[in-house]
Amino acid sequence: MQNVSESAWWTKHLSESMAHICTTALVLGVIGALVALIIALQTLREHTAQVNTARIVTGFLMLLLSTGLIKLILGYASLAKKAGSSEAAATRLLQQHDLEQLHAFRVMYEYHVDRAAGLIIRRGFGICARTNSTTHGWPFASRPP
Predict the structure, then answer these.
(1) DSSP state of 121
(2) Among 91, 82, 89, CA closest to 113
(3) pTM here?
(4) Of 95, 115, 106, whose CA–CA distance to 7 is shortest?
(5) Gyration radius of the chain over CA positions
């Protein structure tokens, strides 16, 4: 149960990091495109240049939508929520004195099914850039990250 709890903790934090990265990319892309459109429409006086700029910005916004960032955001948020519930269930079982094997298998099975059905977590993006902030809440004193 200790391994399931630890693995669920890491999965939760990594998927939360990926959800934040995808959300930031989507928001910055939309804001950047809209700012570029507003600036171009205010400074350009020729109608053809304004139309071309509007087409480029519209194409960029369609590119953002077609990359699937919204699906990634929802998938990583869902994985983080499921991993959090698996971590809580494993922690509850660890605190019980009379641990039943059936309950332990159920928790382990549910975590592994959720993890297998979830999105791939890119380790390079999530934790390596933010190791100190993520491992600050590391609840496993016996094994450092």
Answers:
(1) P
(2) 82
(3) 0.76
(4) 115
(5) 22
